[in-house]
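Structure first, sequence second, as always.
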């Protein structure tokens, strides 16, 4: 590669999960500290960071077409310097360097704090790869939070030791690690100082978080949530994504005790059939999952439930798939994410026999999504007539329209006088598919 002038502007494009969104923000902060500025919308960036997702094949392949479009001038007029970050970088770093000569930097999710040094090398014309995995070091060397936003993500835990047989996360994000209690309380305080009113605690297995509080007592996620709820100015707390096996009594109880903890739970189940769950190495059953949800509903009857599903896992029979539909009928999710099984290289399921034909997967996904949509609409319709607080996140399409979230994570739009970052009280007047219309009552 030829030496180039140092880039002045950057753009980070994050794909996939919320953890990537968080990492993307932090990479942006690092680059800003290095003296670059974010490229204004619609304008070319000198450096583009593709923060990639490896969870399904489609997501992973996308990066090569993105690189192609950037180098051929289809995304912006001038080809930028390109960095590939995220889980594809971790899993396929070498391959990217060979397959895509236009890429200057490849940086894994646990190494992106070294992006500024890599950039210095890239300017000299040296291509650089860093896919080391010392997770804690990364957080220690990231700059202070500066972004002004009413909602913020805070990564509390990373990695996964569960090894579900279909999943690449244990390989790309590494073993489970928890960030220390004090670091998290400090970062939350800073986020509030710069305008956050809602904080979402993030982790691949967020409820596996554990640490020691200021008195040296061992605490789980519930302990952290109780401590954060005491911070001045924090109005909403959420957490995602949880694993059924890491749920403890204290976290369930917290939903009845902590006013700021929002009535929403994302708890992936993947399948409603015990044989499939076993083959997936989920180590819970459909029944134990359902019982767990009941306990949440006991302490917080209005809790909105969300889940993840995979259809067409190797060997899944029609009857086994129908068990998933039955589970959905029983839970009545407010929201859900469903996917066709995608074999990922290096995972145990990728070499399993009895792959399910694409047409069968398509059909199952369609049937599952029809039910999940039905339940989302029903949940939203059942919310009509409720009064709730909405945290205003952005302007709507038309002048005088605003968009925010209800406590149950529904997108709510309303008209009237408001400001971004404000909490308003609205009456929910109409369910519109995946979102709600509200009527502004007062500004609180
Ligand atoms: N194929 C399809 N879906 C997957 N997920 C994870 N790995 C795969 C895979 N190989 C889904 C799971 C998980 C969500 C983040 O992505 O449902 O909960
Ligand atoms: Fe992947 Fe399973 Fe870990 Fe979730 S719990 S990240 S699905 S291995």
């Amino acid at each position: 590669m030829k030496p180039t002038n140092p880039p002045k502007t950057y753009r980070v494009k994050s794909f996939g999960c919320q953890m990537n969104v968080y990492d993307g923000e932090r990479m942006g902060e690092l680059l800003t500290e290095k003296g670059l500025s974010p490229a204004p919308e619609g304008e070319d960036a000198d450096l583009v960071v593709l923060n990639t997702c490896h969870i399904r094949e489609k997501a992973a392949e996308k990066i090569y077409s993105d690189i192609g479009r950037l180098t051929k001038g289809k995304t912006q007029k001038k080809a930028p310097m390109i960095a590939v970050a995220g889980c594809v970088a971790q899993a396929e770093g070498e391959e990217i360097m060979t397959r895509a000569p236009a890429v200057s930097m490849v940086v894994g999710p646990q190494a992106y704090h070294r992006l500024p040094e890599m950039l210095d090398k890239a300017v000299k014309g040296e291509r650089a790869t860093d896919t080391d995995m010392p997770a804690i070091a990364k957080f220690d060397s990231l700059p202070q939070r500066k972004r002004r936003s009413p909602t913020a993500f805070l990564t509390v835990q990373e990695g996964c030791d569960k090894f579900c047989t279909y999943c690449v996360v244990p390989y790309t994000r590494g073993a489970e690690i928890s960030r220390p209690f004090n670091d998290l309380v400090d970062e939350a305080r800073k986020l509030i100082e710069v305008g956050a009113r809602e904080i979402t605690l993030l982790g691949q297995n967020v409820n596996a978080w554990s640490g020691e509080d200021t008195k040296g007592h061992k605490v789980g996620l519930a302990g952290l949530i109780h401590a954060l709820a005491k911070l001045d100015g924090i109005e909403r707390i959420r957490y995602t994504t949880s694993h059924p096996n890491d749920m403890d009594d204290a976290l369930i109880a917290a939903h009845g005790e902590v006013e700021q903890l929002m009535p929403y739970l994302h708890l992936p189940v993947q399948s409603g059939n015990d044989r499939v769950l076993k083959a997936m190495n989920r180590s819970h059953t459909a029944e134990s999952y359902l019982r767990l949800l009941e306990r949440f509903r006991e302490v917080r009857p209005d809790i909105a439930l969300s889940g993840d599903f995979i259809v067409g896992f190797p060997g899944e029979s029609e009857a086994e798939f129908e068990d998933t539909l039955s589970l959905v009928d029983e839970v009545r999710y407010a929201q859900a994410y469903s996917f066709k099984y995608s074999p990922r290289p290096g995972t145990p399921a990728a070499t399993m026999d009895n792959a399910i034909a694409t047409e069968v997967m398509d059909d199952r996904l369609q049937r599952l999504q029809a039910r999940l949509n039905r339940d989302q609409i029903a949940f939203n319709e059942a919310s009509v007539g409720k009064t709730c607080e909405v945290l205003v996140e952005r302007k709507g399409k038309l002048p005088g329209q605003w968009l925010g979230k209800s406590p149950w994570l529904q997108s709510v739009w309303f008209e009237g006088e408001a400001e971004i970052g404000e909490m308003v009280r609205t009456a929910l007047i109409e369910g519109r598919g995946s979102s709600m219309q509200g009527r502004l009552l007062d500004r609180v």
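Margin note: Residues 160, 162-164, 167, 169-170, 204-205, 243 surround iron/sulfur cluster (ligand 2) (CB under 6 Å).
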